[in-house]
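Quick note —
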Amino acid sequence: MPTTIAVTGRAEERVEPELGAVSLAVASNGADRDRVLATVGGAHERLLGEIRELDAAGALESWSAGQLRVWSHRPWNAEGRQLPLVHEASADLEVVFRDLDALGGWVGPISSASDVTVQGVDWRLTDATRSRVQEAAQRAAVADAVRKAAVYAEALGLGTPAPVELADHGMLQAQPIPRAHKAVAMRAMAMDASGGAPAPEFAPAKLVVEASVDARFTAG
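Predicted structure written out below.
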């Protein structure tokens, strides 16, 4: 009776990020509603002007700007007394840079503005690169599974293992294994992970694209 060999193949690809998506918020608050609106509106228009210039220069992959939001509330102090009405306004923006040098040169100055908050930078790949790198990781994961199965077969004195099943995570259903044989438990995973938060000089870590596959082989 052939022996069933079950393995998990894993692989990862590391690649430099191509895009940097900067999330920004323009916000202000105060007792004078018109002044709050003027502050946020002015900062928002100033940023949009700079973003359009960057886009025209070819530094951006894309950008988007949310609508201006305005609301009011009456806060409470530590003694439980309700304070005068406070007006708040904010607007979100996302700017996706393809020129990462331009990203650092732009974010530094604007982050010093009191009415602008840089919420973070998300390092990304283009769709074409992500697809290519993911495929390379998947192929390498399958090759890893084949190598592992060959090692187990050789250790047992069996012939070349023949593939029976291959699946992504959770798709390879458990099957009864004859009591005379044992199989290695398996899991599969396919995921993308970004490097840690960028350093102040915006030097991002390489992005890691990982792939795992479940595989069953038989060897006689």
